[in-house]
Amino acid sequence: MVIKAQKPSRKEKGGVPIPAPPAAWLQAGLALAVLGWRIMTQPAPVLWRDWGLILSAYWLLVALKPAWQNLSRVTASVGAYLLAIYVIGQFPHTLKSLGFLAP
Amino acid sequence: MKGILLLVLANAASLLGASALVRRMSTGSASVDAVLLLVIRLSLISGAVLLCGVTGTLSPIGLGTLSVLALALLGACGEHKHWQWIPLPPVGWAWIVFIIAVGVRLLAQVWFFAPYLGDPLAYHLPKVAEWVRAGAFTREMGVHPHATFPAGFELIETWWVVFLKHDVLIEMAGVEFLILAGASAGALAKILGAGDRSACLAGALYALVPALHLSATSCLNDTPASALVVSTMLLIIARAHPATFLAAAGLGLGIKPTYGFALPGMILLNFLWRSSGTLARPRSAEAFSLAVLGLVLGTCWYARNWIWFGSPFYPLGSASDPKMVQFGASLSSLWANLASLVGARVYDNATLYGPNDDYMAGWGAAPFAIGVMALLWIQRSDPRMRALALAFVVSLLSTLAFSRNDPWHLKYALFFPALPCVATALLSERVEGIKWLAGGTLGFAILGTCLSYDLRAEHLRVLAAQPWRERTAARLAYGQVTREVPENTVGYFGGPLGATYLLYRPDFSRRVVYLRARTASTLVEEAHATGVRWVFAPDPTAEQARILDDSTARGWMKLDSGRFFVLQ
Q: Measured between beta carbons, which residues in chain B are less than 8 angstroms from residue A28?
């Protein structure tokens, strides 16, 4: 008996759909487009805390170096950095809502 | 006591009825079935209130009789023998304590908050007050230009006030949808492969998205509409019975047309997911009934507007359209909204969190710091997440295209943060440290969702100091109801955005007469004919101000205090 490898059927039960995995270059291209948009439209002094820029740079990294061994560490660090940016912006307002700061 | 007993019986009937339907349309997944139970219960409640409102039996006895009959019928069919409490997932004591703590805080917010936000006070809740007072749906809906908008959420709010003839529990309507939102996000995570604890994290993160959470206790209908978008996405990927889609979509469209803005993403998801495993779809009377109920709930308000005003979307697109909201899609809106979301609003740093999403996205820390990044990570290797992300993004873009770039429009897109919350939960299983960051965002969200831009500590003190029977935001300055009028009938002759709900009193004991006179003499005649002695007239239009000046100059009325006039 000869066993031939078969392509998985789209109709196969439990099989999950498409969209087909976007090629790394396509994801990298999209990330670059966002990166360019942010750099072109934001003043230089605020780029260090630009959410769109940070995420598009991260996306570029994920698209081009998906198997990089330090990716987990970078992911956690970027998360912590973004959390700090968020908290610095919102925390004074939260304190105001709770009555700890004057409105 | 009679009201409380009837409320308990009615809730028991709706739960037992929903459970009977879920048994017949089970998806085989406990987490999806729990969402199904909530969707069907909310559909049944809406249907019952709709029926009683149309037939003029919208009273504790009318709705109570219907509920007791339903309970008796279900009991006779032996449904009570099949009742099962949803088993608690094995998530550990820390999560159980956390969920109980958030639940207790929500109950405290329901108890101590009184309706306080502008839109509900001006055009959502006056309808509820009119219906409860009349025991039926009324043609009188108030004077706000948006009073004719779909009122599906008001049906659920009516359910929580009609038995007690009091609005002390009115926020429970929003809390039900918040539970639906959290349960849907948790079930989505589970379908995508998350463990029980991570699914719990996804649900908690989404339920604590600041704008979603605060909106739930504000009597706004944005949390319900968003929760239903997320639950519809879930039912699509869980390959649930088509009748259940119709129930969720009907509820959503009947609550707010913004649900419809997100439909392109849901349709795309159904297309992308069409080849995955399908469940048996038994053709049963129950499924057919649920589908019909969904269709009725989703179309009734549009049909009413078509019959009464000649357009399903009245006043949008008509000559009397105040153009306060955008009607139709616009590419310039899409671009402006996207640019302001990414460039400014996603930071949530303009002001305090609030249910109206003032000048911010209101998504909170988790989607901002971890969620979108997690999405970029997870989608690399998981085609299911890619399909789901594509559907959510299409829904978001569609919603942005349909919304004007005003300070509040992102409250229409509160379904979107469910996706990054689910991705965060999935990533927390794969990357060391993300769990702790997500925990930090949860703690921050707990702090930020105690009070809000529109209800601050000083406002809560005023509300909490009142006995529950009298608790009202009329004591807060922005309602402009600055004095208690000793009359059971009050006329309203103010501008179209006035907080008229505050006039009804929390127990709906006061009649409010909307005066629409065009001259001073007809104003006084109209007031006398309807038994009105006191007229509340905040922020009058130029024409109303002229009529009020004329009436006072002629000595027919006198300004008493604040914005109250008394007829002479």
A: none
Determine the distance in angstroms separating the CA of B379 from the nearest CA of chain A, rounded to an integer. 9
With CA atoms as reference, report the closest residue to B262 among B273, B274, B248, B275.
Answer: B248
Helix (H) or strand (E) holding B506: none
DSSP result, A77-90: HHHHHHHHHHHHHH
DSSP B51-120: HHHHHT--SHHHHHHHHHHHHHHHHHTTGGGG--PPPPPS--HHHHHHHHHHHHHHHHHHHH-----HHI
Residue partners of B6: CB distance under 8 A and separation at least 6? B60, B63, B64, B67, B163
* Neighbour tally for B153: CB within 10 Å: 27
Confirm if B236 and B187 have CB atoms less than 8 A apart. no
pTM: predicted TM-score of the whole model, two decimal places: 0.94
Element (H, E) at A22: none
Chain A neighbours among B 406-465 (CB < 8 Å)? 427, 430-434, 437, 440-441, 444, 447-448, 450-453, 456-458
pLDDT under 70: residue ranges of chain A: 1-22
Instruction: Tell me if residue A98 falls in helix, strand or coil.
Output: coil
What would the two tokens of residue B180 be?
């639906």
Residue of A nearest to B363 (CA): A86
Going by C-alpha positions, the residue among B16, B55, B296, B48 that lies closest to residue B162 is: B48
Q: How close A35 gets to chain B, by Cα (Å)?
A: 12
Tell me how close the Cα of B362 comes to any Cα of chain A, in angstroms. 11
User: Where would I find the H helices in B476-553?
Assistant: 520-529, 542-553
pLDDT by position in tens, chain B (length 568): 889 999 999 999 999 999 999 998 888 899 999 999 999 999 999 999 999 999 999 999 999 999 999 999 999 998 888 887 777 778 899 999 999 999 999 999 999 999 999 999 999 999 999 999 999 999 999 999 999 999 999 999 999 999 999 999 999 999 999 999 999 999 999 999 999 999 999 999 999 999 999 999 999 999 999 999 999 999 999 999 989 999 999 999 999 999 999 999 999 999 998 877 666 566 688 889 999 999 999 999 999 999 999 999 999 888 777 788 888 899 999 999 999 999 999 999 999 999 999 999 999 999 999 999 999 999 988 889 999 999 999 999 999 999 999 999 999 999 999 999 999 999 999 998 999 999 999 999 999 999 999 998 889 999 999 999 999 998 887 666 666 788 899 999 999 999 999 999 999 999 999 999 999 999 999 999 999 999 999 999 999 999 999 999 999 999 987 789 999 8
Contact A55 B376 (CB under 8 A): yes
Report the first-to-last Cα separation within chain B, whole angstroms: 42
- Rounded to the nearest angstrom, the minimum Cα separation between B103 and chain A is 19
Q: Does A103 touch chain B (CB under 8 A)?
A: yes
- Cross-chain Cβ contact B383/A18 below 8 Å: yes
Count A/B contacts: CB-CB distance under 8 Å: 138
DSSP sequence for B433-483: THHHHHHHHHHHHHHHTSS-SSS-HHHHHHHHTS-GGG--GGGSGGG---S
A19 at interface of B, judged by CB pairs closer than 8 A = yes
Q: B514: which strand partners?
A: B492
Query: Using the 8-state DSSP alphabet, how is residue B326 labeled?
Result: -
